[in-house]
Specification:
There is one protein chain. The chain is mainly alpha-helical. The chain has one domain: Growth Hormone, Chain: A (Up-down Bundle). It has helices spanning about 10-15, 20-30, 35-40, 45-70, 80-100, 105-135, 140-170, 175-190, 200-225, 240-245, 250-280, 285-310, 310-330, 340-375, 380-405, 420-430, 435-445, 450-465. Helix 7 runs antiparallel to helix 9 (about 200-225).
Length: about 475
């Protein structure tokens, strides 16, 4: 596809749609899964943290292998689509077992299905991310593709927030109209409803939503979106490719930025439900996240415009500053400060839109620098590294957050001591700063600007011709 040729809107929409069910997986894992298996199933918090750490270690092995295999795949339908076709049924089955467990759940049950779910996520996610980088070589077209994908991501996150909201506000004898009215009151009038004893239903309905939408959106993307084979045919072995990657300072830099940002977000997200419910006193957590994702979705055009105006990396710096400031201000809130929390949470939601798509678009640009240097076209390998870094970062941050509050005596679903609640407050509000500050420094001085990327693309086109 020529760099001057804009990507059709329908192509962007069809490609981005698959991120909706993928996002619906990420939200409950980040917010609901640990509270469910600790409070409802009864697995101790430190055990869950260790299991999640163990389950994620498999990705360190599978991610680069699948990235390399994806780059080497050649079929009549492309090199990314076959992997997505393989991953969808694996993911669907694992989600069913994990989100809708029976009455008796062992630790081994949780380990097996978490590992299988992560495997399915890898088989789908790595080729999907690489596919987006290959639809267009243009700097701003990639921003359109990635922002379109992240817009669908926020729709998926919003659906995932509305499902628990619908369960939270439901009650015996309520009609559909009354339930919708209560949902609107919770989202727009900030009304709170009792949600005790509904966590199993919340997770179960979210699981069914994912199982229904994942094959539908995957089929649409496979049918409507081209899977272009790159002009560059040079094969680079995995070991040599990793060596080239390690010697690419810009790749190392962007991956380190992604590591730090995802660690900060994952650290805080692990504690989010407990902070919203137990510190601020809001029971209808789904309503808070519905507003959060609505704000993020509305803000995407702003971040897209800002990235074009001042550059992706400077726009990303602003999202980091905004997110970190909001988190810090939450430290000063007390139980019952609903209005101030909702305002801050909406501001953080607006920042979330930029926090999602800008780093992925920056990484896609780095693929071109590698192609110019090595003669290979390895978006799959790069996005495998990105996926591996993201998963390791998330894994370590979730483990650290759960172990830290457990060490300070916090027990989910019980009346906790003042010291345990203070630990929850400190780690939720200030913990992410340890990750965001170095990420901000690395991003502010990021060297691959729009002008330099245009020069890079010209050199690459000359190399290909």
């Amino acid at each position: 596809m020529d760099s001057a040729q804009p990507v059709k809107r329908n192509t962007i929409l069809s490609y981005g749609g698959l991120s909706t069910p993928l996002a619906m997986i990420g939200y409950p894992i980040a917010i609901w899964l640990i509270p469910f298996y600790s409070e409802v199933v009864g697995i101790e918090l430190y055990v869950l943290a260790n299991i999640l750490l163990l389950a994620r270690f498999t990705d360190v092995i599978t991610d680069p292998i699948l990235g390399q295999l994806g780059d080497s795949t050649k079929t009549v339908i492309g090199r990314r689509k076959p992997w997505i076709i393989l991953g969808v049924p694996i993911m669907m089955f694992a989600i069913y077992k994990l989100f809708i467990p029976g009455a008796e759940v062992s630790i081994m049950y949780f380990v097996i299905w978490m590992m299988l779910m992560y495997l399915g996520s890898t088989i789908i996610g790595i080729p999907y991310g690489a596919w987006g980088a290959e639809i267009s070589p243009d700097y701003h077209q990639r921003s359109r593709i990635v922002s379109g994908r992240e817009g669908w991501t926020l729709i998926g996150l919003l659906i995932s927030a509305l499902i628990p909201l619908a369960i939270e506000v439901s009650g015996n004898g309520l009609s559909v109209g009354e339930s919708i009215n209560r949902m609107l009151q919770a989202v727009f009038l900030f009304q709170d409803f009792s949600t005790s004893g509904k966590m199993r239903d919340i997770l179960g309905y979210m699981g069914m939503g994912i199982i229904l939408l994942l094959p539908l959106f995957a089929a649409l993307a496979i049918w409507k979106v081209p899977d272009p084979m790159p002009k560059v045919e040079k094969k680079i072995p995995l070991k040599e490719g990793l060596k080239y990657a390690a010697e690419n300072p810009l790749l190392v830099r962007i991956l380190l930025i992604i590591f730090l940002v995802i660690a900060g977000e994952s650290f805080r997200n692990t504690l989010s439900l407990w902070f919203v419910r137990d510190v601020i006193g809001i029971e209808t957590v789904g309503a808070s996240y519905a507003r959060y994702f609505i704000a993020g979705f509305i803000a995407i055009p702003f971040w897209l415009w800002l990235g074009k105006t001042i550059g992706k990396h400077k726009a990303f710096c602003i999202t980091l500053i905004g997110t970190g400031t909001v988190s810090f201000l939450c430290f000063f809130l007390e139980n019952g400060d609903f209005k101030y929390f909702h305002i801050l949470f909406l501001l953080k939601g607006a920042c979330f839109g930029g926090l999602q798509f800008l780093p992925a678009s920056m990484l896609a640009d780095v693929v071109d620098l590698d192609s110019l240097k090595t003669g290979g076209r390895r978006a799959g390998t790069f996005f495998a590294l990105n996926g591996m870094i993201a998963k390791v970062s998330s894994m370590l941050a979730v483990w650290a957050a759960a172990r830290l509050i457990d060490a300070f005596g916090f027990v989910p679903g019980t009346e906790n001591s003042d010291s345990a609640m203070m630990a929850l407050r400190v780690f939720y509000c200030i913990g992410c700063a340890a990750f965001f500050l170095p990420a901000l420094f690395l991003t502010w001085f990021y060297p691959l600007t729009k002008e330099k990327h245009i020069e890079l693309r010209k050199d690459l086109e000359e190399q290909l011709n």
